[in-house]
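Section: protein folds

Sequence with per-residue tokens
===
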Amino acid sequence: MALPPLSAIRAFEAVARHLSFTRAAEELGMTQAAVSYQIKLLEERLGTALFLRKPRQIELSVVGARLAPQVRQAFDLLRDAFADTAGAVDGQLSISAVPTFAGQWLAQNLGLFQIAHPEIAVRLNAESGLVDLLHGEVDIGIRTLAEPQSNGLVSHLLVKADFSPLLSPVLAESIGGVKEPADLLRLPILDPEDDWLNKWFTAAGVRGYSAEGRPASMLGWQSLLGTAAMAGRGVAMLTPALFRDEIDGGRLIQPFPLLASDGRGYYMVYAESRRNLPKVRLFRDWMLQATAYMREPS
């Protein structure tokens, strides 16, 4: 079978992604009627409907749903091939990372990658929102996930987000030292409504932890909690693997080896279609080697 017109395939990809003829037309710089005509040509060529047209909405048909991801991947491959050939884009690596990992590990170590690969300029954005790694300009995302992602994405675990209470040595000494988990209840607790607190205290055999009566606070990001903990403001439930420098330097202490888990971890994620781009391959290999120590058993 001869390949259908590229304009019709492009129109199908846009409509399938937006599930809207209007939004697809805006993206392609075409009229809605022109987009509809291209879809009609494609459906006639295939001999089957690609969309189910309903009042005020459309849906992909069974055939359309099967075809859409393959067409989308093909366009992603074409886009990356042209970008790679142009050379300019291949010289810049765009990374989107959740703030905690960006601040606690990546910003401190990224210079080592750039020393090893000076030909690659790195742009790092620390942001809590998820970016579109399949269709956007970001090459690699560092995300907190409960499980690896699929559907066109590749995921690599960097470090499990296991957690344990950390605090400043000065705060610990204010009650004569922290000798058993229950001693922590005598100290200020940062983010007292954090679900991690209940999970860790339960795992430690301490029953009855409650945020009631404790000053309400919500710093959210581990990097902010760690800063507050180092200042002696309270006990923070943190991922020790991301605070090894602070622990080794005596700015924080981990009084108990017990780690609790909610099943999440920090993952490096990128589009399958970008797997073989030199800049992505080089960063992936460096990142997995550089973080290997955090995945080793304690």
